[in-house]
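#random but structural
TW: two for the price of one
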Amino acid sequence: MRIPHPLLPAALVAAMLIAAACAPDAEPPEDRFCRDLAVTRCASLARCCVPAESALPVDATTCAAIVTEQCAAAVLDPVRRGAARFQAAGAADCLARAATCGAQLLAFCAEATVGLVPGGNFCAANEECVQPALCLPADGGLQGPTSRCFVPQDEGAACGSAHHFCAPGAWCDPATTTCSPASDEGAPCAASSMCRVGLACVGGACRALAATGAPCAAPIECAGGLCLAGVCAEPCDGAARR
Protein backbone atom coordinates (compact mmCIF):
# COMPACT_ATOMS: atom_id res chain seq x y z
CA MET A 1 0.00 0.00 0.00
CA ARG A 2 1.29 3.44 -0.93
CA ILE A 3 1.61 5.82 2.03
CA PRO A 4 0.78 9.48 1.30
CA HIS A 5 3.62 11.90 1.79
CA PRO A 6 3.18 13.35 5.29
CA LEU A 7 4.11 16.86 4.13
CA LEU A 8 1.68 16.96 1.23
CA PRO A 9 -1.33 18.34 3.11
CA ALA A 10 0.76 21.08 4.73
CA ALA A 11 2.28 22.00 1.38
CA LEU A 12 -1.15 22.23 -0.19
CA VAL A 13 -2.43 24.43 2.62
CA ALA A 14 0.59 26.73 2.33
CA ALA A 15 0.15 26.99 -1.42
CA MET A 16 -3.52 27.83 -1.00
CA LEU A 17 -2.72 30.53 1.57
CA ILE A 18 -0.09 32.08 -0.69
CA ALA A 19 -2.47 32.03 -3.66
CA ALA A 20 -5.22 33.65 -1.61
CA ALA A 21 -2.87 36.36 -0.34
CA CYS A 22 -1.66 37.15 -3.84
CA ALA A 23 -5.05 36.95 -5.53
CA PRO A 24 -6.55 40.24 -6.76
CA ASP A 25 -9.68 41.73 -5.26
CA ALA A 26 -12.53 39.37 -6.13
CA GLU A 27 -14.95 42.28 -6.59
CA PRO A 28 -14.34 44.31 -9.77
CA PRO A 29 -14.07 48.07 -9.12
CA GLU A 30 -17.13 48.84 -11.23
CA ASP A 31 -19.24 46.45 -9.12
CA ARG A 32 -17.98 48.07 -5.94
CA PHE A 33 -18.77 51.50 -7.41
CA CYS A 34 -22.40 50.59 -8.13
CA ARG A 35 -22.82 49.18 -4.63
CA ASP A 36 -21.29 52.27 -3.01
CA LEU A 37 -23.30 54.60 -5.26
CA ALA A 38 -26.60 53.03 -4.20
CA VAL A 39 -25.75 53.39 -0.52
CA THR A 40 -24.33 56.92 -0.77
CA ARG A 41 -26.86 58.44 -3.12
CA CYS A 42 -29.91 57.01 -1.37
CA ALA A 43 -28.66 58.17 2.02
CA SER A 44 -28.19 61.68 0.61
CA LEU A 45 -31.64 61.68 -1.01
CA ALA A 46 -33.22 60.79 2.31
CA ARG A 47 -31.22 63.53 4.06
CA CYS A 48 -31.48 66.29 1.46
CA CYS A 49 -34.68 65.83 -0.55
CA VAL A 50 -38.41 65.70 -0.18
CA PRO A 51 -40.30 63.39 -2.59
CA ALA A 52 -41.44 66.29 -4.81
CA GLU A 53 -37.83 67.26 -5.54
CA SER A 54 -36.49 63.86 -6.54
CA ALA A 55 -37.28 61.48 -9.38
CA LEU A 56 -36.14 58.68 -7.07
CA PRO A 57 -38.04 57.54 -3.99
CA VAL A 58 -36.40 58.60 -0.74
CA ASP A 59 -37.31 55.22 0.77
CA ALA A 60 -33.91 53.56 1.23
CA THR A 61 -34.80 50.05 0.07
CA THR A 62 -36.70 51.10 -3.05
CA CYS A 63 -34.12 53.75 -3.90
CA ALA A 64 -31.20 51.31 -3.61
CA ALA A 65 -32.90 48.82 -5.94
CA ILE A 66 -33.52 51.49 -8.58
CA VAL A 67 -30.02 53.01 -8.40
CA THR A 68 -28.45 49.55 -8.58
CA GLU A 69 -30.49 48.72 -11.68
CA GLN A 70 -29.61 52.04 -13.32
CA CYS A 71 -25.91 51.62 -12.56
CA ALA A 72 -25.93 48.10 -13.97
CA ALA A 73 -27.40 49.33 -17.27
CA ALA A 74 -25.15 52.40 -17.54
CA VAL A 75 -21.88 51.08 -16.11
CA LEU A 76 -21.69 47.33 -15.50
CA ASP A 77 -23.25 46.07 -18.73
CA PRO A 78 -21.24 48.31 -21.12
CA VAL A 79 -17.97 47.55 -19.29
CA ARG A 80 -18.60 43.79 -19.30
CA ARG A 81 -19.40 43.91 -23.02
CA GLY A 82 -16.09 45.67 -23.65
CA ALA A 83 -17.98 48.65 -25.08
CA ALA A 84 -16.90 51.04 -22.32
CA ARG A 85 -13.99 51.48 -19.92
CA PHE A 86 -14.45 52.11 -16.20
CA GLN A 87 -12.94 55.40 -15.02
CA ALA A 88 -11.87 55.19 -11.37
CA ALA A 89 -11.20 58.92 -11.05
CA GLY A 90 -14.55 59.85 -12.57
CA ALA A 91 -16.33 57.32 -10.38
CA ALA A 92 -14.71 58.84 -7.29
CA ASP A 93 -15.91 62.31 -8.33
CA CYS A 94 -19.40 60.90 -8.82
CA LEU A 95 -19.45 59.34 -5.35
CA ALA A 96 -18.27 62.61 -3.82
CA ARG A 97 -21.08 64.47 -5.59
CA ALA A 98 -23.61 61.86 -4.50
CA ALA A 99 -22.69 62.49 -0.87
CA THR A 100 -23.60 66.19 -1.01
CA CYS A 101 -26.90 68.05 -1.04
CA GLY A 102 -28.01 70.18 -3.98
CA ALA A 103 -28.97 69.81 -7.62
CA GLN A 104 -25.72 67.98 -8.39
CA LEU A 105 -27.04 65.08 -6.31
CA LEU A 106 -29.61 64.38 -9.05
CA ALA A 107 -27.08 64.47 -11.91
CA PHE A 108 -26.27 61.20 -13.66
CA CYS A 109 -22.74 59.81 -13.22
CA ALA A 110 -21.67 59.87 -16.86
CA GLU A 111 -18.02 60.37 -15.88
CA ALA A 112 -17.77 56.86 -14.38
CA THR A 113 -17.20 55.35 -17.83
CA VAL A 114 -15.82 56.32 -21.24
CA GLY A 115 -17.44 54.88 -24.36
CA LEU A 116 -15.32 52.92 -26.81
CA VAL A 117 -17.73 52.40 -29.75
CA PRO A 118 -17.01 54.78 -32.69
CA GLY A 119 -19.75 56.52 -34.63
CA GLY A 120 -21.64 54.32 -37.08
CA ASN A 121 -21.16 51.11 -35.10
CA PHE A 122 -23.73 49.05 -33.22
CA CYS A 123 -24.43 49.95 -29.59
CA ALA A 124 -26.83 49.17 -26.76
CA ALA A 125 -26.65 52.40 -24.72
CA ASN A 126 -25.35 55.97 -24.95
CA GLU A 127 -22.59 55.12 -22.48
CA GLU A 128 -21.02 52.83 -25.09
CA CYS A 129 -20.53 55.53 -27.73
CA VAL A 130 -17.42 57.65 -28.09
CA GLN A 131 -18.48 61.13 -26.97
CA PRO A 132 -20.40 63.09 -28.12
CA ALA A 133 -22.20 60.42 -30.16
CA LEU A 134 -25.56 59.05 -29.04
CA CYS A 135 -26.90 55.50 -29.34
CA LEU A 136 -30.05 55.72 -31.46
CA PRO A 137 -32.23 53.09 -33.16
CA ALA A 138 -31.60 53.00 -36.89
CA ASP A 139 -35.23 52.09 -37.57
CA GLY A 140 -36.73 54.87 -35.46
CA GLY A 141 -37.98 52.53 -32.72
CA LEU A 142 -36.51 51.76 -29.31
CA GLN A 143 -32.86 51.04 -28.56
CA GLY A 144 -32.12 47.48 -29.59
CA PRO A 145 -30.23 45.32 -32.10
CA THR A 146 -30.42 48.00 -34.82
CA SER A 147 -29.08 50.86 -32.67
CA ARG A 148 -25.92 52.60 -33.78
CA CYS A 149 -23.75 55.44 -32.47
CA PHE A 150 -24.70 58.65 -34.31
CA VAL A 151 -22.42 61.69 -34.15
CA PRO A 152 -23.93 65.20 -33.74
CA GLN A 153 -23.66 67.50 -36.74
CA ASP A 154 -21.51 70.63 -36.77
CA GLU A 155 -22.65 74.08 -37.84
CA GLY A 156 -23.65 74.17 -41.49
CA ALA A 157 -24.41 70.43 -41.70
CA ALA A 158 -27.82 69.02 -42.61
CA CYS A 159 -30.20 68.21 -39.77
CA GLY A 160 -33.85 67.59 -39.08
CA SER A 161 -34.08 63.82 -38.67
CA ALA A 162 -33.63 61.68 -35.59
CA HIS A 163 -30.14 60.71 -36.79
CA HIS A 164 -29.08 64.18 -37.94
CA PHE A 165 -29.05 66.38 -34.85
CA CYS A 166 -26.87 69.34 -33.97
CA ALA A 167 -23.92 69.44 -31.62
CA PRO A 168 -24.05 71.63 -28.49
CA GLY A 169 -23.73 75.26 -29.45
CA ALA A 170 -25.89 74.86 -32.55
CA TRP A 171 -29.58 74.33 -33.26
CA CYS A 172 -31.49 72.88 -36.19
CA ASP A 173 -33.13 75.67 -38.17
CA PRO A 174 -36.32 74.17 -39.65
CA ALA A 175 -36.36 76.77 -42.43
CA THR A 176 -33.05 75.56 -43.84
CA THR A 177 -32.72 72.11 -42.15
CA THR A 178 -29.13 72.99 -41.31
CA CYS A 179 -27.34 73.41 -38.00
CA SER A 180 -27.14 77.13 -37.22
CA PRO A 181 -25.10 78.82 -34.47
CA ALA A 182 -27.01 79.08 -31.20
CA SER A 183 -27.90 82.60 -30.11
CA ASP A 184 -26.15 84.67 -27.45
CA GLU A 185 -27.79 86.32 -24.45
CA GLY A 186 -30.32 88.95 -25.46
CA ALA A 187 -30.95 87.56 -28.96
CA PRO A 188 -34.55 86.82 -30.00
CA CYS A 189 -35.70 83.21 -29.78
CA ALA A 190 -38.76 80.99 -30.04
CA ALA A 191 -37.39 78.03 -28.06
CA SER A 192 -34.55 77.39 -25.60
CA SER A 193 -32.89 75.07 -28.14
CA MET A 194 -32.04 78.20 -30.13
CA CYS A 195 -29.97 79.60 -27.23
CA ARG A 196 -26.43 78.76 -26.23
CA VAL A 197 -25.78 76.32 -23.39
CA GLY A 198 -26.53 77.99 -20.06
CA LEU A 199 -29.26 80.20 -21.53
CA ALA A 200 -33.03 79.78 -21.79
CA CYS A 201 -35.63 81.38 -24.02
CA VAL A 202 -37.63 83.63 -21.68
CA GLY A 203 -40.06 86.23 -22.97
CA GLY A 204 -38.86 85.76 -26.53
CA ALA A 205 -35.17 86.37 -25.78
CA CYS A 206 -32.21 84.25 -24.68
CA ARG A 207 -31.59 84.89 -20.99
CA ALA A 208 -29.05 83.62 -18.49
CA LEU A 209 -30.42 80.98 -16.13
CA ALA A 210 -31.57 82.59 -12.90
CA ALA A 211 -29.79 81.88 -9.63
CA THR A 212 -31.41 80.53 -6.49
CA GLY A 213 -33.73 83.18 -4.97
CA ALA A 214 -34.43 84.99 -8.25
CA PRO A 215 -38.03 85.36 -9.47
CA CYS A 216 -39.21 82.81 -12.04
CA ALA A 217 -42.27 81.67 -13.95
CA ALA A 218 -41.08 78.21 -15.00
CA PRO A 219 -38.37 75.69 -13.97
CA ILE A 220 -36.53 76.12 -17.28
CA GLU A 221 -35.62 79.66 -16.23
CA CYS A 222 -33.70 78.48 -13.14
CA ALA A 223 -30.12 77.24 -12.95
CA GLY A 224 -31.22 74.64 -10.39
CA GLY A 225 -34.16 73.55 -12.54
CA LEU A 226 -36.73 74.20 -9.78
CA CYS A 227 -39.22 77.08 -9.54
CA LEU A 228 -41.24 77.10 -6.32
CA ALA A 229 -43.86 79.78 -5.58
CA GLY A 230 -42.36 82.05 -8.21
CA VAL A 231 -38.80 81.78 -6.87
CA CYS A 232 -35.85 79.76 -8.19
CA ALA A 233 -34.87 77.10 -5.67
CA GLU A 234 -32.06 74.58 -5.34
CA PRO A 235 -33.41 71.01 -5.49
CA CYS A 236 -32.43 68.71 -2.67
CA ASP A 237 -30.46 71.38 -0.80
CA GLY A 238 -31.78 70.11 2.53
CA ALA A 239 -33.87 73.24 3.15
CA ALA A 240 -37.12 71.31 3.08
CA ARG A 241 -35.71 68.88 5.65
CA ARG A 242 -34.70 71.54 8.15
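TW: number two ↓
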Amino acid sequence: MTTVRKERRHPGRKGILSLRILIVIGVAVLAAALLIILNIGRSPQVAGANLPYETGVTPDGDPYKGSPDAPLYLLVYSDFVCGHCGALADALEALSPEYVETGKMQVVFRSYAFLTPESVRSAEASECALDQGADGFWKYHDVLYANRGTGLSAYSDTRLREYAQQVGLDISMFNTCLDSEATVGNIQADLDRGIADGVQGTPTWFINGEMVPGALPEDTLRAVFDAMLAEGS
Protein backbone atom coordinates (compact mmCIF):
# COMPACT_ATOMS: atom_id res chain seq x y z
CA MET A 1 0.00 0.00 0.00
CA THR A 2 1.34 3.41 -0.93
CA THR A 3 2.00 5.68 2.02
CA VAL A 4 1.39 9.40 1.58
CA ARG A 5 2.92 11.71 4.13
CA LYS A 6 0.69 14.12 5.96
CA GLU A 7 0.22 17.62 4.65
CA ARG A 8 3.38 19.72 4.64
CA ARG A 9 3.78 23.23 5.90
CA HIS A 10 2.55 25.80 3.39
CA PRO A 11 5.30 28.14 2.19
CA GLY A 12 3.29 31.14 3.30
CA ARG A 13 2.31 34.17 1.33
CA LYS A 14 3.05 33.94 -2.36
CA GLY A 15 4.24 37.46 -2.81
CA ILE A 16 6.85 38.67 -5.22
CA LEU A 17 10.18 39.77 -3.77
CA SER A 18 10.66 43.44 -3.05
CA LEU A 19 11.76 45.72 -5.88
CA ARG A 20 15.22 46.09 -4.39
CA ILE A 21 15.76 42.34 -4.34
CA LEU A 22 14.20 41.90 -7.77
CA ILE A 23 16.72 44.36 -9.20
CA VAL A 24 19.53 42.29 -7.71
CA ILE A 25 18.03 39.19 -9.31
CA GLY A 26 17.59 40.85 -12.68
CA VAL A 27 21.27 41.68 -13.16
CA ALA A 28 22.18 38.01 -12.64
CA VAL A 29 20.25 36.40 -15.49
CA LEU A 30 23.22 36.11 -17.84
CA ALA A 31 25.45 34.81 -15.09
CA ALA A 32 22.91 32.14 -14.22
CA ALA A 33 22.68 31.09 -17.86
CA LEU A 34 26.45 30.76 -18.04
CA LEU A 35 26.44 28.64 -14.91
CA ILE A 36 23.98 26.23 -16.54
CA ILE A 37 25.99 26.06 -19.75
CA LEU A 38 29.14 25.23 -17.85
CA ASN A 39 27.21 22.56 -15.92
CA ILE A 40 29.37 22.98 -12.86
CA GLY A 41 28.84 20.08 -10.42
CA ARG A 42 29.92 19.27 -6.89
CA SER A 43 32.04 16.40 -5.75
CA PRO A 44 29.83 13.44 -4.81
CA GLN A 45 29.27 12.60 -1.16
CA VAL A 46 31.09 9.54 0.13
CA ALA A 47 29.99 6.95 2.65
CA GLY A 48 30.73 7.88 6.24
CA ALA A 49 31.20 11.60 5.58
CA ASN A 50 29.70 13.79 8.29
CA LEU A 51 27.50 16.65 7.17
CA PRO A 52 28.51 20.04 8.61
CA TYR A 53 24.96 21.16 9.34
CA GLU A 54 21.89 20.08 11.26
CA THR A 55 19.48 17.90 9.32
CA GLY A 56 16.05 16.53 10.03
CA VAL A 57 12.51 16.07 8.84
CA THR A 58 9.85 18.69 9.48
CA PRO A 59 6.66 17.71 11.32
CA ASP A 60 5.04 17.70 7.88
CA GLY A 61 7.51 15.19 6.48
CA ASP A 62 9.91 17.35 4.44
CA PRO A 63 13.70 16.91 4.70
CA TYR A 64 15.57 19.98 5.89
CA LYS A 65 19.07 21.19 6.62
CA GLY A 66 19.87 24.07 8.92
CA SER A 67 18.33 25.25 12.16
CA PRO A 68 14.52 25.31 12.40
CA ASP A 69 15.00 28.59 14.33
CA ALA A 70 16.86 30.28 11.45
CA PRO A 71 15.57 33.71 10.37
CA LEU A 72 15.61 32.64 6.71
CA TYR A 73 13.34 29.79 5.63
CA LEU A 74 13.95 28.57 2.08
CA LEU A 75 11.58 25.99 0.59
CA VAL A 76 12.66 24.69 -2.79
CA TYR A 77 10.65 22.69 -5.33
CA SER A 78 13.10 20.82 -7.52
CA ASP A 79 13.46 18.08 -10.15
CA PHE A 80 16.62 15.95 -10.04
CA VAL A 81 16.77 15.79 -13.85
CA CYS A 82 16.59 19.59 -14.17
CA GLY A 83 19.93 21.26 -14.93
CA HIS A 84 18.83 24.61 -13.51
CA CYS A 85 17.83 22.83 -10.29
CA GLY A 86 21.32 21.36 -10.04
CA ALA A 87 22.82 24.81 -10.55
CA LEU A 88 20.71 26.21 -7.71
CA ALA A 89 21.65 23.28 -5.49
CA ASP A 90 25.34 23.95 -6.23
CA ALA A 91 24.98 27.62 -5.34
CA LEU A 92 23.14 26.85 -2.11
CA GLU A 93 25.78 24.30 -1.16
CA ALA A 94 28.54 26.83 -1.80
CA LEU A 95 26.76 29.30 0.49
CA SER A 96 26.08 26.71 3.18
CA PRO A 97 29.03 27.74 5.41
CA GLU A 98 27.74 31.33 5.48
CA TYR A 99 24.06 30.70 6.05
CA VAL A 100 23.07 27.10 6.80
CA GLU A 101 25.99 26.17 9.06
CA THR A 102 25.80 29.46 10.97
CA GLY A 103 22.11 29.10 11.82
CA LYS A 104 20.95 31.88 9.49
CA MET A 105 18.98 29.73 7.05
CA GLN A 106 16.99 26.53 6.95
CA VAL A 107 16.59 24.82 3.57
CA VAL A 108 13.59 22.54 3.04
CA PHE A 109 13.27 20.30 -0.02
CA ARG A 110 10.22 19.13 -1.95
CA SER A 111 10.22 17.18 -5.17
CA TYR A 112 8.51 18.60 -8.22
CA ALA A 113 9.14 15.66 -10.54
CA PHE A 114 7.53 16.47 -13.87
CA LEU A 115 10.09 16.52 -16.70
CA THR A 116 10.63 12.83 -17.52
CA PRO A 117 9.94 9.36 -16.09
CA GLU A 118 13.50 9.56 -14.72
CA SER A 119 12.42 12.63 -12.74
CA VAL A 120 9.85 10.54 -10.92
CA ARG A 121 12.15 7.56 -10.44
CA SER A 122 15.01 9.61 -9.01
CA ALA A 123 12.58 11.39 -6.69
CA GLU A 124 11.28 8.01 -5.52
CA ALA A 125 14.86 6.95 -4.84
CA SER A 126 15.50 10.09 -2.82
CA GLU A 127 12.46 9.30 -0.68
CA CYS A 128 13.85 5.81 -0.12
CA ALA A 129 17.05 7.48 1.07
CA LEU A 130 15.00 9.72 3.37
CA ASP A 131 13.45 6.62 4.92
CA GLN A 132 16.93 5.95 6.32
CA GLY A 133 17.30 9.44 7.79
CA ALA A 134 17.73 13.04 6.76
CA ASP A 135 21.54 12.74 6.52
CA GLY A 136 21.07 9.95 4.01
CA PHE A 137 18.64 12.04 2.02
CA TRP A 138 20.97 15.04 1.69
CA LYS A 139 23.94 12.88 0.75
CA TYR A 140 21.81 11.14 -1.87
CA HIS A 141 20.45 14.50 -3.07
CA ASP A 142 24.00 15.76 -3.60
CA VAL A 143 25.10 12.65 -5.49
CA LEU A 144 22.09 12.82 -7.80
CA TYR A 145 22.92 16.40 -8.74
CA ALA A 146 26.65 15.69 -8.97
CA ASN A 147 25.90 13.11 -11.67
CA ARG A 148 23.72 15.36 -13.79
CA GLY A 149 25.04 16.08 -17.24
CA THR A 150 25.81 12.42 -17.91
CA GLY A 151 22.48 11.78 -19.62
CA LEU A 152 19.30 10.07 -18.52
CA SER A 153 21.27 6.89 -17.86
CA ALA A 154 22.40 8.62 -14.66
CA TYR A 155 18.89 7.94 -13.32
CA SER A 156 18.58 4.27 -14.28
CA ASP A 157 17.69 1.88 -11.49
CA THR A 158 21.20 0.45 -11.66
CA ARG A 159 22.78 3.83 -11.10
CA LEU A 160 20.25 4.82 -8.43
CA ARG A 161 21.20 1.71 -6.48
CA GLU A 162 24.91 2.44 -6.96
CA TYR A 163 24.45 5.92 -5.49
CA ALA A 164 22.74 4.45 -2.43
CA GLN A 165 25.74 2.22 -1.82
CA GLN A 166 28.11 5.11 -2.46
CA VAL A 167 26.63 7.24 0.32
CA GLY A 168 26.47 4.36 2.77
CA LEU A 169 22.78 3.54 2.86
CA ASP A 170 21.54 0.10 3.84
CA ILE A 171 21.35 -1.24 0.31
CA SER A 172 18.94 -4.06 1.14
CA MET A 173 16.45 -1.62 2.68
CA PHE A 174 16.94 0.80 -0.20
CA ASN A 175 16.36 -1.85 -2.86
CA THR A 176 13.24 -3.11 -1.13
CA CYS A 177 11.85 0.42 -1.00
CA LEU A 178 12.69 1.20 -4.62
CA ASP A 179 11.30 -2.09 -5.91
CA SER A 180 8.06 -1.66 -4.00
CA GLU A 181 7.41 1.83 -5.42
CA ALA A 182 6.18 2.67 -1.92
CA THR A 183 7.10 6.33 -2.28
CA VAL A 184 5.13 7.09 -5.47
CA GLY A 185 2.31 8.64 -3.46
CA ASN A 186 4.72 10.99 -1.70
CA ILE A 187 6.06 12.26 -5.02
CA GLN A 188 2.57 12.89 -6.37
CA ALA A 189 1.59 14.65 -3.15
CA ASP A 190 4.58 16.99 -3.47
CA LEU A 191 3.72 17.70 -7.11
CA ASP A 192 0.11 18.46 -6.22
CA ARG A 193 1.21 20.75 -3.41
CA GLY A 194 3.59 22.57 -5.71
CA ILE A 195 0.81 23.18 -8.22
CA ALA A 196 -1.37 24.53 -5.42
CA ASP A 197 1.48 26.83 -4.36
CA GLY A 198 1.72 28.27 -7.88
CA VAL A 199 4.79 26.38 -9.07
CA GLN A 200 4.95 26.20 -12.88
CA GLY A 201 8.50 25.02 -13.42
CA THR A 202 11.74 24.12 -11.65
CA PRO A 203 13.45 25.27 -9.69
CA THR A 204 10.93 27.39 -7.84
CA TRP A 205 11.79 28.45 -4.33
CA PHE A 206 10.19 30.45 -1.55
CA ILE A 207 12.32 32.57 0.75
CA ASN A 208 10.32 33.48 3.86
CA GLY A 209 7.17 32.88 1.83
CA GLU A 210 8.15 34.95 -1.20
CA MET A 211 8.30 33.09 -4.52
CA VAL A 212 11.38 33.20 -6.74
CA PRO A 213 11.32 31.13 -9.96
CA GLY A 214 14.58 29.93 -11.48
CA ALA A 215 18.22 29.45 -10.51
CA LEU A 216 20.47 32.30 -9.41
CA PRO A 217 24.26 32.35 -9.10
CA GLU A 218 26.01 32.36 -5.77
CA ASP A 219 26.76 36.09 -5.54
CA THR A 220 23.17 37.05 -6.33
CA LEU A 221 21.78 34.62 -3.77
CA ARG A 222 24.13 36.09 -1.19
CA ALA A 223 22.81 39.57 -1.98
CA VAL A 224 19.21 38.38 -1.68
CA PHE A 225 19.83 36.61 1.63
CA ASP A 226 21.76 39.54 3.11
CA ALA A 227 19.04 41.99 2.06
CA MET A 228 16.36 39.89 3.71
CA LEU A 229 18.43 39.47 6.86
CA ALA A 230 18.93 43.21 6.99
CA GLU A 231 15.21 43.83 6.53
CA GLY A 232 14.50 41.53 9.45
CA SER A 233 17.07 43.01 11.77
